[in-house]
């Protein structure tokens, strides 16, 4: 997989954007350029929109109002006001703002969709969005207010405000009026939009897809981290390795399961403790023995979600669409978020499973009845010290919260626009809550890593199976111990937790593992 950090420039043509390029622009500020062919396609599409308007043909959003006002004709001289009014009246989102990387992703996806050249907008809209991305002007967009059906109308309207010199934006670390941000960046604003452009900006799944795509990428990283961290837990609990033999997983055939089993073999190879403890019992509990089956199912779920995101990154999702070959104007429902709502709900469910089984492994390490010889709550002086007792409480709290959040958003619908828009996706809600599940899951994985390192130290003190870890296990263990010491007596644990959480979120542990085990995927 290409590293987003290594991508310096992304050329938009409406057809070839990939997830790693999306992350490179949204998160790492890669430069964006417009393909010449895309500009030509937009010019042809715009010419057709103007022809339709001049001929006064009935065309939704060009010569008619929006939503339930589709039956109301709009005169040619008012068509520009119609598009501008759409932005002004639809910027009704509320709540905390989206992160800048999420908004940058929205801008990138909106520009890429318009690049296809069947939306009828002027190229200047895409050129402005690209210039804002390259110069760091990021609209302030509140998170709540999209039904995920007629596009992400409310959030994308807040994005459109800044093109008009209105609303608010972030620029050079400061939140300011949108017009001021554009002026400081040297980007001229538009006096007005013209016919079809209000829909061109707001109709689409760009908000949900941006939020969901970022969460997908990070959940894919979390799934790899879960393999890495569980290999340390497996060592601490003297797990039995027969359960990870290749033939065991090949006969079932699931790709994710086969990959996770391979990862565990690679990550535990050369571990003295594990080599010497084999045969200690016939089989382990599910939280250890079934890591490939559970983590692997998550991997397969993420592959499905990615297949849908890969399509949506290059999808045209506004309405109506203008086809130059026969001058057709087709009203349809490409703005509907259902194709992404289901995958993003699935993303949240899959991510919650990572945390659920991780919490069970934490419980096994701190519970002396389940830990295969470790001390109670991983303390050497029980009674006066509680050790890691409450680490499991906190992990259980987050795992349980994830179960509430994993309830699918897409099964709900509230009709809108006088029942014209009578079935909506709630896809933006699905994408947003997947992000909350992800943050909880990362914390649970950090708790497991912290607990596993404490358990390994105690296992080494016991010494019945030696003290050696695998090369990658030793590297990760030592990396943690550089920031967090073994807990001999109770101390404030929150600094230790914060330090390990930072490791989990930064990606440094995966980079460390990849240096030692290049085949770890």
CATH architecture of the largest domain: Up-down Bundle
CATH topology label of the largest domain: Fumarase C, Chain A, domain 2
Measured as a percent range, the helix fraction is: 55-70%
- Adjacency order of strands in the biggest sheet: 4-6-7
In round numbers, the mean pLDDT is 94
Percent of residues in beta strands: 5-15%
CATH class of the largest domain: Mainly Alpha
The CATH homologous superfamily of the largest domain: Fumarase/aspartase (Central domain)
Number of domains: 2
Can you put this structure into words, describing what you see?
The structure is a single chain. With 521 residues, the protein is mainly alpha-helical. It has 2 domains: 4-204, Fumarase/aspartase (N-terminal domain) (Fumarase C, Chain B, domain 1); 212-323 and 331-516, Fumarase/aspartase (Central domain) (Fumarase C, Chain A, domain 2, Up-down Bundle), CATH 1.20.200. 56% of the residues lie in helices and 6% in strands. The chain has 20 helices and 9 strands. It has helices at 19-28, 36-54, 79-90, 100-115, 123-135, 153-163, 178-185, 197-202, 206-236, 246-250, 255-268, 272-277, 286-289, 291-312, 338-366, 389-405, 427-462, 471-481, 494-506, 508-516; strands at residues 9-12, 31-34, 94-97, 138-139, 142-144, 168-171, 174-177, 321-323, 328-330. It has a 3-stranded antiparallel sheet with strand order 4-6-7. A two-stranded parallel sheet has the order 1-2. A two-stranded antiparallel sheet has the order 3-5. Helix 1 crosses helix 4 (100-115), helix 4 runs antiparallel to helix 5 (123-135) and helix 9 (206-236) crosses helix 11 (255-268). The chain is elongated and about 85 Å long.
